[in-house]
UniProtKB/TrEMBL annotation:
Name of one Pfam family that matches: Prenyltransf
Lineage of producing organism: Bacteria, Bacillati, Actinomycetota, Actinomycetes, Micrococcales
Enzyme kind, highest EC tier: transferase
PANTHER family in the cross-refs: DEHYDRODOLICHYL DIPHOSPHATE SYNTHASE COMPLEX SUBUNIT DHDDS, DEHYDRODOLICHYL DIPHOSPHATE SYNTHASE FAMILY MEMBER
Residues of the signal peptide: none
Function per UniProt: Catalyzes the condensation of isopentenyl diphosphate (IPP) with allylic pyrophosphates generating different type of terpenoids.
Active site: D33, N81 (proton acceptor)
Annotated InterPro entries: UPP_synth-like, UPP_synth-like_sf
CDD domains: Cis_IPPS (cd00475)
Cofactor binding notes: Binds 2 magnesium ions per subunit.
Annotated organism of origin: Cellulomonas chengniuliangii
Protein name: Isoprenyl transferase
């Protein structure tokens, strides 16, 4: 149940004020889930649900900026999603292309594509690469758009990259096996050079990761929200960050 507007706004401010800078996650990953179910409940098309979800992204990034988050990773399309019907997939890819262009056009955020671009249509790849190029020098919030992304595929791509690199250098398999380490994989992930996600949020009530940032999220805190992504509010985001701040992070220790 939503609170009446004046009380609702006061509640949001109170949560935000309770968060000290050292309690804010540097990197937040978000699984944007529930667009189709939102559309079904609203009696409208899946494309409308995906569009409403895309319209919510700028709000999330603004909320993240306000509290000092440095990196946001948005899971917009998984490798599994690529098997959806041609009609839905074509509409969804078009919405993603427009959303990425809109994010880049603001000049506020640095956009980076993370995913298996070789699985995507040329038009989608072009939109992602153009957004990356036009925001490369932006110093604001770093936004990873995970499109055609799968955690297992990312790790496989990292290992392939390592093997190719050492093959070019003339390293033997025995030499590579002897020196191979966790750091080798981390240095070849899509998100190399970025902090691992401190907090991962999934909307729609589903309580599973589905392979999102599989390697990077080993020590992440998870927050599952009942709201479908198009209905996700600032107060939901602040509650997630407050829950993160209240936890004792052991980081595997």
């Amino acid at each position: 149940m939503r609170l009446p507007h004046p009380v609702y706004a006061l509640y949001e401010r109170r949560i935000a004020a309770s968060l000290s800078p050292e309690q804010v996650p540097r990197h937040v990953g978000v699984i944007l889930d529930g667009n189709r179910r939102w559309a079904r409940n609203a009696g409208t098309s899946a494309a409308t649900g995906h569009q409403r979800g895309a319209d919510k992204i700028a709000d999330l990034l603004t909320w993240s900026e306000e509290i000092g988050v440095e990196v946001v990773t948005l899971w917009m399309l998984s490798t599994d999603n690529l098997s959806r019907s041609a009609e839905e997939l074509t509409a969804l890819l078009g919405i993603i292309e427009d959303a990425v262009r809109d994010l880049a056009s603001t000049g506020r955020w640095r956009v980076q594509a993370v995913g298996s671009l070789d699985l995507l249509p040329a038009a989608t790849v072009q939109a992602l690469k153009e957004a990356e190029a036009s925001t490369r020098d932006v110093s604001g919030l770093h936004v990873n758009v995970a499109v055609g992304y799968g955690g297992r595929r990312e790790i496989a791509d990292a290992v392939q990259s390592i093997l190719r690199e050492h093959a070019r250098a003339g390293t033997t398999l025995d030499e590579l096996a002897e020196s191979f380490s966790v750091e080798h994989i981390a240095e070849h992930l899509y998100t190399k050079g970025q902090p691992d996600p401190d907090l991962v949020i999934r909307t729609s009530g589903e309580q599973r990761l589905g392979g999102f940032l599989l390697w990077q999220s080993a020590h992440s805190e998870y927050y599952f929200c009942e709201a479908y992504w198009p209905d996700f509010r600032r107060v939901d985001f602040l509650r997630a960050v407050r829950a993160y701040a209240a936890r004792e992070r052991r980081l595997g220790r």
